[in-house]
Amino acid sequence: xxxKISLIAxxxxxxxxxxxxxxxxxxxxxxxxxxxAFKLLKQLAKDQPVTNIFISPYSASTVLQMVGSGAAGPTxxxxxxxxxxxxxxSDAVNxxxxxIAQSLNSGNTNIILTIANAxxxxxxxxxxPEFIACNQQFYGFTVAPxxxxxxxxxxxxxxxxxxxxxGKITRIAEGMMSVDTPRLFLVNxxxxxxxxxEAFDAKDTKDRPFHLRDSSQKNVPMMTQTKTFTYRxxxxxxxxxxxxxxxxxxxxxxxxxxxxxxxxxLGIMTGDTWQRVTKPGFSEKEGTVMLPRFKLEYSVELIxxxxxxxxxxxxxxxxxxxxxxCPEHCISQALQKTVVEVKEEGTEAAAMTLLHLADGIxxxxxxxxxxxxxxxxxxxxxxxxxxTILFMGVMFDPETN
Length: 401
Hints:
Blueprint: H1 8-15, H2 22-47, E1 53-55, H3 57-68, H4 73-83, H5 90-104, E2 111-122, H6 129-139, E3 142-146, H7 153-164, E4 184-195, E5 206-211, E6 217-234, E7 237-243, E8 249-256, H8 262-267, H9 271-278, E9 283-292, E10 294-301, H10 303-308, E11 329-342, E12 346-359, E13 369-372, E14 377-383, E15 388-395
Parallel strand pairs: 2-3, 9-13
Antiparallel strand pairs: 1-15, 2-4, 4-12, 5-6, 6-7, 6-9, 7-8, 8-14, 10-11, 11-12, 14-15
Helix pairs in contact: 2-5, 3-4, 3-5, 5-6
């Protein structure tokens, strides 16, 4: 399958067509998802300064696009603007989501990458069968009506979450069930486990100083590797691509210069610059990379950052229009939980996003280079085949979980 993030020329070429082909819709959706990814991480970094953040923008955009297929009027317009899908029909978005998920779930034996979706709805909820059928067709939903007013129904969702994330996220529905529980849950899960194409040698891992934002430092286990890397020396940062065994998925690590910061670097990065400028600027270089070994669990309520980005009506009990799902409902909660562990052998990461619907100019680097990731940095995990950013984060302190 061809890479699925479009260049501007491709977008312009297809803009005048009334019919959007499947491949161009895939490209446009991947580009839209990555644009949303950078916007969301910027907003969270603004809302939670000097905080370790780890999100799956792909998981968030997928579940929002699923519920967006049942939105109408100004509610749908706002969602499309924030998600970057204006100009794409719901059918095109749904089909492109299916294509991307099928590619991600292709079953490469060198890594584990799975995508899963589910809907649970209360038995008395007037959920339109067309919405259920659409999501079963395009998103492969597990669909189940049951008594969400039963406190034990949380166990069903928690068990599903644990199964789909290999035990990494287990209690996402805790405290959410009551007689007044929302009528509809939509959930997306992403799980990834991959070994590095070339593992770090544990014998080379040593405690070294990591410089914190407050000018203090602490010793953390730093993995070390010297070889030929896919590397970039950008204006105000260094970056390296660390591939996993299938060579398709990779982690990108961005180390801001000492006079910069993750926030400044995020400020100049968008989905468009990522595709047109940043990725093409990488080349093969001999050098040494030192990277902290770290583990992080993160949880965030997404309503406030989404509202700040302009998605307001979807959460407004008086004005939300999800008439394609069920009448007089709005999104009452949008929660994402994630976990990531980076070590010598590779990376394991999982994300779960849950929605409730309720009524109511480059500088040439030295050769060899040194990239000692011993101060706050950005990182992301991208699928090269689809061009999709699956996970991304900001790390200020590797030993704060």
